[in-house]
Amino acid sequence: MMVLVTYDVNTETPEGRRRLRHVARECVNYGQRVQNSVFECLVDPAQFAKLKHSLAGIIDKERDSVRFYFLGANWKNRVEHLGSNTGYDPEGLLVT
Amino acid sequence: MMVLVTYDVNTETPEGRRRLRHVARECVNYGQRVQNSVFECLVDPAQFAKLKHSLAGIIDKERDSVRFYFLGANWKNRVEHLGSNTGYDPEGLLVT
Predict the structure, then answer these.
(1) Is residue B18 part of a domain?
(2) SS3 track for B28-45
(3) Do A69 and B61 touch (CB under 8 A)?
(4) Residues in the annotated binding site of B
């Protein structure tokens, strides 16, 4: 399933900047960065549970926010884009 | 329909910072900010076309990126969240 991960991490402190790096580093293990704090992750339910668990362990729940959007099987028809594009298709070739 | 708008605007220049403000200001007219550069917009097709057209007119297509994700009617069951939450339900009461 395709899960969109978007996050806001409070980077006012060195600790916050560390959390931000760790959130991004974790998401890279599961999917493709399409914008600074937006990842598209093609995962099965078990992988998603693991990703969610590790992100929950990284963020400061009072100051940071992570949102997961389940785009479903038909996800390719659910996305449009304007501007510069890291365009890719996780199930196919890199679109440039 | 619920459309998720995510954007990255290059803010290295004063012009870029102006574009960022204008993108956010435009999105506020159509929906709710749930993260710094993530908006949830409950719009009909005509409203979406207008939003997309105005954002296309604001951004620098070489340096900025706007992505639209169509979450469909069942969108409330397609979202999960960790951490601090501006929680709201555009079709109901503000969730705090």
Answers:
(1) yes
(2) HCCEEEEECCEEEEECCH
(3) no
(4) 8
Cα separation of A8 and A38, whole Å? 10
H-run or E-run covering A33: strand A31-35
Confidence (pTM): 0.88
Q: Can you tell me the ipTM of this complex? A: 0.86
A60·B83 Cβ contact <8 A:
yes
Cβ-Cβ contacts under 8 Å, A73 against chain B:
none
Residues of B in contact with A72 (CB under 8 A): 72, 78
Q: What is the largest CA-CA distance in chain A?
A: 40
CATH number at residue A52: 3.30.70.240
- Give residue A39's domain range: 2-73
Mind telling me how many Å the CA of A72 is from chain B's nearest CA? 9
Does B92 or A54 have the greater pLDDT score? A54
